[in-house]
Specification:
Blueprint (H helix, E strand, L loop, with lengths): L39 H12 L11 H4 L8 E3 L17 H22 L8 H26 L24 H16 L16 H16 L8 H14 L9 H9 L8 E5 L30 H4 L5 E3 L1 H6 L7 H4 L3 E4 L2 E4 L32 E5 H16 L1 H15 L14 H15 L6 H7 L7
Antiparallel strand pairs: 1-3, 2-6, 4-5
């Protein structure tokens, strides 16, 4: 989508490293840590560097979408080589695993350096608070991704300024302690950042994004492996703040959410926080981070014709996902494409073909930015949607107050899908256990291909890796 003050920086703001003592003069052609962070503009540049971790090729601009989140009951990786993360035969040397780890800690280190220098320039105090809040939240979010996938991880809250700073080879911190730091940072951030209506677009961290993500963090902390059940009440609290803010609602048409994304249209009521991409230049930024993205190029309907919307079709839909939908569910034939391409022509998939279907959420035929590029598009990736907040509220309420308390939020999502709304006596929702199973299925259908299924299964203790 269109560039913003955060996403338009073409060069990654790298973690700064102090010069060797061999040099006895101050460099004049680049900034060192003691020279930088001297102005509000430099703080904003540094904040842009923290954001760039989201658009890294190992996160939302690449393998996290089409390699690291396959191998579950949602999708499978279409490849002649059956090895690596999609089939759980990897180790730490796998480039997608090590790349994600390094990218997340790079983002954390850049955030740490910014936070250590946040008070350095003379500037408006409100503007300083906003920068601090966004940096705190992003650091916490990167730690959230780390603790979800690796459990105990090193908790590092100071920047690495030189190889001699004794911040390498840190011991792992218990996951519970990491979660506590994440929650503390996000709560602080919630009081500092702006409202989403102050921006009118979804690429910045806002109060709604922080509140909704706090609900997600608390739900995950309540699940495996930490299993702190007290966090269900907090999850309900934070989800409720988003719901009662009056700033968000479901888009009446499920498919329009994703058409809007393809057409550079912001929907701040449904889409709360997104990783932003824009343009169709494949080498706009170079290296591991680009301004343009891969949404719809890797996760979409395979197509070899550029004008029709070129797509590699790297990910295919698991047959169980297709079968989980009611025939009348409006999401099914959008989320699971009912066609393939033969040249530029669409060919219907036979109704009994369950394992030859492609994801249909992001359809490049709707792109308005032309000429289309084979390896670049400007479609954003949704990190947090309002439908997710409603389902998190339903799940948390069920755990704290029983299924009747969660039912209204579940039914809002089902109503948009055009399927039957439950009443309290229905078997699917008449006990806490049954309600949880129903929520698990509803999240499966509503949020497919949005990078949540594997970690959802992990927190529920349901992921099978062999």
């Amino acid at each position: 989508m269109k560039p913003t003050t955060i996403t338009c920086f073409a060069v990654l703001f790298m973690a700064l490293v102090s010069c060797s003592k061999i040099l006895d003069t101050k460099p004049t052609d680049f900034s060192t840590p003691d020279q930088y962070y001297s102005t509000e503009s430099q703080l904003n540049d540094a904040l842009a560097g923290v954001y760039t971790g989201l658009s890294n090729k190992y996160l939302y601009n690449g393998s996290y979408l089409f390699i690291l989140n396959t191998g579950n009951d949602e999708s499978w990786y279409r490849s002649t080589t059956i090895a690596g993360p999609p089939v759980y035969t990897h180790d730490a040397s796998n480039v997608d695993i090590s790349g994600l780890w390094a990218n997340l800690y790079d983002g954390i280190n850049t955030a740490n350096a910014l936070l250590e220098n946040i008070n350095k320039p003379e500037m408006d105090s409100t503007a300083r608070k906003v920068i601090k809040g966004e940096a705190l939240f992003l650091r916490a979010y990167y730690y959230f991704l780390l603790v979800q996938h690796w459990g105990d991880v090193p908790l590092k809250l100071t920047s690495t300024t030189s190889p001699a700073s004794n911040t390498f080879n840190l011991a792992r911190t218990p996951a519970k302690q990491v979660y506590e730091q994440i929650i503390a940072d996000m709560i602080t951030a919630e009081g500092l950042v702006k409202e989403i209506t102050d921006y009118g677009y979804t690429g910045r961290v806002t109060k709604s994004a922080v509140q909704g993500m706090l609900a997600r963090v608390c739900l995950y902390m309540a699940g495996e492996p930490v299993k702190d059940a007290t966090k269900y009440e907090q999850a309900a609290y934070w989800a409720n703040k988003v719901i009662t803010s009056g700033k968000h609602s479901l888009n009446p048409d499920y498919k329009q959410i994703f058409i809007n994304e393809m057409q550079d249209k912001y929907d701040i009521k449904e889409c709360i926080w997104e990783s932003e991409f824009y343009g169709n230049e494949t080498s706009a930024s170079g290296g591991d981070t680009r301004t343009s993205g891969y949404v719809g190029i890797q996760v979409g309907v395979q197509c070899a014709i550029l004008d029709s919307g070129y797509c590699y079709g790297t990910v295919m839909v698991h047959g169980l996902l297709y079968k989980s939908f009611d025939a009348t569910d409006k999401r099914r034939d959008w989320e699971v494409a009912p066609y393939t391409y033969s040249g530029a022509n669409k060919v219907a998939v036979a109704s009994n073909q369950y394992y030859t279907r492609f994801p249909g959420k992001w359809r490049r035929e709707y792109e308005t930015l032309v000429p289309r590029a084979k390896n670049a598009c400007g479609t954003n990736f949704p990190i947090l949607r309002y439908a997710d907040v409603l389902l998190m509220k339903a799940e948390a309420e069920n755990e704290v107050n029983g299924p009747a308390a969660g039912l209204p939020y579940l039914n809002q999502v089902r109503a948009r899908a055009g399927i039957t709304q439950y009443v309290a006596t229905d078997a699917a929702v008449n006990s806490k256990g049954n309600f949880l199973k129903t929520i698990q299925t509803e999240r499966y259908k509503e949020l497919a291909f949005e990078g949540l299924r594997t970690t959802d299964l992990m927190r529920w203790g349901l992921l099978i890796t062999n």
